[in-house]
Amino acid sequence: MGYGFKLLKSNGDVAMSTDSFGLQIVDDFTVSSGNSGSRTYSELSYFNILYAMTGSEYDDVSFHRELSSHVSLDLSGSVGAGNVPTVSWSPIYQSGANSCGETTSAGGSYACNGSGCQPPAYGTLPTVRIIVMAA
Amino acid sequence: MSYGISFTGNLGNACFSEKAPSVVFMGKATNSNSYGSSFHNRGCSYLYHVGYQNYHSYRHATSGCVGSGLASNKDSIIHNSSNYHRTRTDTFRTCVFEVEADSKPIVFINYSTPSTYGGFVIKVVDNGGTGSRGYTTWDITVWLSYTNGNYTACANSLTLYCFSKMPSNYTNSVYGLYIRDASANTMFHSDFEPAQIKGIIDLNTPSNLSWTGTFTTYSSISKYAYLSKDAGRIKRVYNAGSNSFEYHNPIVAFEKLSGTGWNVKEGNAPLFKLNDSNGSDSYLGDTQLVVPIVDGADYD
């Protein structure tokens, strides 16, 4: 190799080199359905690649609430060179709905707010796993 | 950086450092290997019934299906509160795999026949067990994407490459390279193979229902394995037949094409619908989807 580094396994295979990159887990947590929030990672400003991913946790009774279980993630703030990354999340609402009065057999009704419409609370609320990774 | 150690790659990225635990390989799971993978026909309990159903009929249908394994009435006609009928088809089920990992796994999926089958992880839970290496065992539920009832073939086509955080208390210091943080937690150890990210699919916000983006590879890849993640997007699609919008949470699987080409495979499972005829087709949710890729051959 002309430059860079390689980390070899005992069998001679490359475990890591400058031709690829590793991942490091900065944070791994769950948020409750319908909630909003944010976290700031001031100690991680030197990372050059940072992103967040979601993984919804479903169960049989909560799957129907999927719409409100999802979160929209936003990774704001540039990374590297002293910038502070922030991960924020908010629930996804059905937009443009005009049938929020629809009722269910559970006796609930679809609730409206300024952002749209979401199913009524019923059963176990799902959680959403958020993983923040850096490289 | 003001102190510490960081190995930097060609992209200016940190390959590993003392700032955060590395993502390391813990093991792989298939539908037939000896380490505890198992198959469950649980998908019918919700995946059939949310399709084309509204909230009312979903609950009704669920009561006869949850826990009963494969529904005997699959492909049958069911009735919903709007007094019309839809035929269910056998297109979505789940498969549960078991793996051992120090912390909650992060899963990359390889599809042996990606043009035919796909899927992604929808649930990862501690199943209460302990594996042969002393780590926690986890149930990983994968939502399968297939046609014509070939769910077993779909499950058999998948290989899950499971990673987790570097075990913080791992202390073997006989030889090799290890990095610890200021609290003596192990952030990296060469006894554990790190995730080598060799490619990225970077998908942008769709202006309509089409995915756009780029596929970049940093090193040669022989066995593509994609980070399985929730797309974080709800797809809102107009159904002319019912004059309403359906809300889908599509399976997102990836198919490598020649060169740097790629294809996003979406399942077609309506989540539920409301009597909403206004608005337009759209995606809701994340504005960007970044999918790292590893080479499964590095871990076979």
Q: Which features characterize this protein?
A:
heterodimer; A: 135 residues; three-stranded antiparallel β-sheet; 1 helix; 10 strands; elongated; B: seven-stranded antiparallel β-sheet; four-stranded antiparallel β-sheet; 6% helix
Task: Describe this protein's structure.
The complex is a heterodimer of chains A (135) and B (300). Chain A has a 3-stranded antiparallel beta sheet, with no helix packed on it. Chain A has a 3-stranded antiparallel beta sheet with strand order 4-7-6. Chain A is elongated and about 50 Å long. The longest helix of chain A has 4 residues. Chain A is mostly beta strands and 135 residues long. Chain A is built from 1 helix and 10 strands; from the N terminus they run E-E-E-E-E-H-E-E-E-E-E. Helix content of chain A is 3%, strand content 40%. By secondary structure, chain B is mainly beta. Chain B is built from 3 helices and 22 strands. A 7-stranded antiparallel beta sheet of chain B has the order 3-10-7-15-22-13-14. In chain B, strand 13 and strand 14 form a beta hairpin. The longest helix of chain B has 8 residues. Chain B is globular and about 70 Å long. The relative contact order of chain B is 0.18. The interface between A and B is large, with 65 and 79 residues.
